[in-house]
Amino acid sequence: MLSGVRFMKTGWGFIGASTIAKQWMIDAVRAQRGHDVVAVMSSDLARGQAYADANQIGKAYDLVEALLADEEVNAVYVSTTNELHKDQVLAAAAAGKHVLCEKPLAVELNDAVEMVIACRKAGVVMGTNHHLRNAATHQAIRQQIESGVIGNVVGMRIFHAVELPGNLQTWRINKPQAGGGVILDIVVHDADTVRYLLGEDPVDVMAYAQNGGMASGLEDGSMTIMRMPNGALVQSHESFVVPHAGTGLEVHGTKGSIFARGVMTQKPVGEVEVVTDQGRRFLDIDHHNLYVHSLAKFATAIEDGGEAAVTGVDGIKSLAVALAVSKSAAEGRRVEVNYPDIPPGT
Length: 346
Ligand code: NDP
Hints:
Shape: globular
Number of strands: 15
Largest sheet: 9 strands, mixed
Radius of gyration: 20 Å
Distance between the termini: 39 Å
Number of helices: 10
CATH superfamily of the largest domain: Dihydrodipicolinate Reductase, domain 2
CATH class of the largest domain: Alpha Beta
Structural class: alpha/beta
Bound molecules: NADPH dihydro-nicotinamide-adenine-dinucleotide phosphate
Order of helices and strands: EHEHEHEHEHEHEHHEEEEEEEHHE
Strand order of the largest sheet: 14-13-12-11-7-10-9-8-15
CATH architecture of the largest domain: 2-Layer Sandwich
């Protein structure tokens, strides 16, 4: 390679001039050898151009079609508001671009299924950007559970009540049609975490939602009980209006318990303690950037085959749980999770 010439294998087009892209994802792409963000699409060209300039992105577009027609773009990252994901992902798949889409994949389950099938048919890699599976803490917890050290898991509790930062108090708290509200924002992550850590999909849920004074026309807090196929119960608490609770999770088994503190976060932090008859011990956690880890897996899937860290099907299933929570809270009853059939080989 000539010195001074940047070697590029994968050019990324970012659909959505979003906060998450600016805070984490642009750097995560650039941390992969041969990957760069070459274009961004915003519905407002002036804002998109300013965003591109501020983040050293070469091109700004105001139409998805224009970004997808750019031959330098091989993969897209979709981080617009949630109601827009579906059409943008379908267009990207039709253009033959690999797709990493933000959670929730869509606002409706059928839309998420359509997106995954379109990507499969197009033969492109598709991933859902649930970040928590990429955390060293969560990976260590899963390894502990799989090792059997805590015996059979009978219960799990998730503490994910936070204060939504002021700069994000926009569509999440006042735009139901954009997929706002704490359930599609945070419960969907917790559902994915449960599925990842316990290796099973919740069967049914009972939930309550509340308005704690921040959102309008939407819930900004929820508590849920999920029932797992093996009978384990999972309790979760999510909120936008709780500044000082701290986050974490506990997993309780017949031989031991796991206490993880500060782990429901975008940052590579937190601690994990395992308690058994042998005593208490903190795990040695070698923290790494969650989003860089997710992108590394995606890059490998493009270059060498394999899957994204969190697949499109994972995105569908975690959305299915969140939608069941929403329905349970609205109807005041137990709701079975509806996992759609996805035809093999599509
Ligand atoms: P933002 O509110 O920052 O961005 C969403 C859209 O709002 C952008 O696409 C942009 O539209 C518009 N927008 C953003 N900032 C401004 C502004 N200052 N003025 C006018 N319009 C603005 O959303 P987030 O980054 O918080 O979330 C985006 C997606 O990512 C969602 O799907 C969310 O669920 C997901 N997410 C995932 C996280 C994770 O860890 N996996 C964490 C946070 C969010 P345009 O592009 O048209 O300019």
